[in-house]
Amino acid sequence: MASNREAFVSDCFEWNDGVLVWNPGFRISFFEWEVELISSLRALLEGCYIKRNGEDKRLWIEEPSGTFSVKSFYKSIMPISNPSCSAKRIAEEFGIPLLPAYLVSRSKEQDFRGGANFAVAGGTALDAAFFAERGIEDLSTNYSMGVQLNWFMELLPTLCPDSSNCRDMLRRSLFLMGEFGGNDYSLVYQKGWSTPELHTVVSQITTAISSAVDMLIEHGATTVMVPGTLPIGCFLTIFGRPSKDNYEPLTGCRKDLNELVSYHNQQLQKELDWMRDKHPNAIIIYVDYYNAALPVFGSPYQFGFSKGAFVACCGGGGPYNFNSSAPCGSPWAKAFNNTSLYWNWDGRHPTEAGNRMITTGLIEGPYTIPPITSSCPSLASENVNHPHYE
């Protein structure tokens, strides 16, 4: 299909005023049914971050036969959204329709009037430029919070061409902002940053999240849920086992990283307090993922996770069944049976049962400030259309 079958990746795009523009070039015309597929491919390519002046190469998943194929390459650039997120449980509780993934549905005739899910695995609060300035350019995706907000702004005119109707729609909508921050810390940590160095970017991350909330409210949003970060010190699959002097005896997690997250969440709540002062008519709900999830690590059996909270249900072996060279979804990884017995799905996300445990605490417990049930009583009303954007 390509006009130049011997082309390098660098032959398929150009830099226009610092912006990467893809132009792969095809030698044949497409059937009508193929146009949609090409649009989806272009949308996926837009999120691939290319290093300027870097070595021109692309690595992707090898098929079990030992060969490489276009199919496996396409699979490698497909963004993997976490299918079992807390938003699903919240939607079920309040009768909100489940959300279509925007990135894979925007080239189709998808109706987003009931809401949209902009989340993509690996999304960061800070833009790619922040990491590039610090010598970190090999990002797996460029789907940062800013990119996702731009998608929302692109979608908005199609939902409500009239600005007055738009504000009314946003007033009736529920926004779930993230969770953002965990991927930022994980990314720089794996590049060799120390825990004290991680503390230096907390204010930039929480300010970016707060600014995004501010932008949504300025455009008409009145109900925004903002999650704090999960206890990343308990994801031993990514960050490794704690040393003896860095061990939390009640949970078995890493003390230094959980202290980092606690500080992040404190700073985020301060930012949200400032937003509440600035927008007194808006409902800004802090979602305490950290404390909702933490008890399971000390007593997994109490919550029904007989296989524990650290071991990944789906993985390619290695400590805690996690191997970054054989992640869940690759040909070398496999998922255990009875996923409900595991809290950790793929080393980076909770399982469906894990998310249900967290979200039950959010809805029924003390882990939202102010409580979601008293802040959003109308969400439980029948026959009311409430769009939901994540």
In short:
The chain has 390 residues and is α/β, with parallel strands linked by helices.
Walkthrough of the structure:
The chain is of the alpha/beta class. It has two domains: 9-75, no CATH class; 81-389, no CATH class. Helix content is 38%, strand content 8%. It has 16 helices and ten strands. The chain has helices at 32-46, 70-77, 86-94, 102-105, 128-132, 145-159, 163-171, 182-189, 195-199, 202-218, 236-239, 255-278, 289-293, 295-298, 352-364, 372-375, and strands at 13-16, 19-22, 115-116, 174-176, 223-227, 283-287, 314-315, 334-335, 368-369, 388-389. The strands form three sheets. It has a six-stranded mixed beta sheet, with helices on one face. Strands 1-2 form a two-stranded antiparallel ribbon. A hairpin with a 2-residue loop joins strand 1 and strand 2 (19-22). Helix 3 (86-94) crosses helix 15 (352-364) and helix 10 (202-218) packs parallel to helix 12. The two termini are 37 Å apart. Mean pLDDT is 80; it is low at 74-84 and 380-384.
